[in-house]
Amino acid sequence: MKRLLFIILTLVVVISFTGGCATMNATMNKISVPKITGGSEESDSGLYRKVPASMRADVKEAEFDLKRAKANALMADEKLTLSEMQKEREILRNKYARYDKTLAEVLIKKADIGVEIKKMEAIDNSNLGDRASNIKTIANLKTKQLGIESDEIEIKADMEMTNLRIKELTKLIVAQEKKVQKK
Description:
Layout: H1 2-30, H2 41-44, H3 46-49, H4 57-125, H5 131-182
């Protein structure tokens, strides 16, 4: 029953779209829409050349307004590019700060493991506790320490790459700011 209802509903939708499209095509064929272009073909033809110079002042003013509008649009694009670059640089600075915080946390873990290793080595050197257990514990702690050092190296590399990108973006931003100020 649900399947039949779904098929009927689908058919109704398809028919309504088909009918709507046919009606729309017939309506659009009856309507003539003027074509708008950057410069109409008629104004570029030989007819405009026949217009007396005294009557071309309005056209010259309109052409000047067009050039000014295009220049304003280009400037807006340059400003938008600058803004996007500044936004990306701020995102990277935030990312760098997060890496810095993570690095600080990793260094705390590294120092903590270092303290634990030194304690266990002092216990082992004092011949306290089970020697086999002490050696195994020291080995496990040193393994953890190596993992933490690996994390530290990765984070430092990420920080360097992020800092490099920030410096590159800063140079691009300075150049873009000069473009915006010149215009």
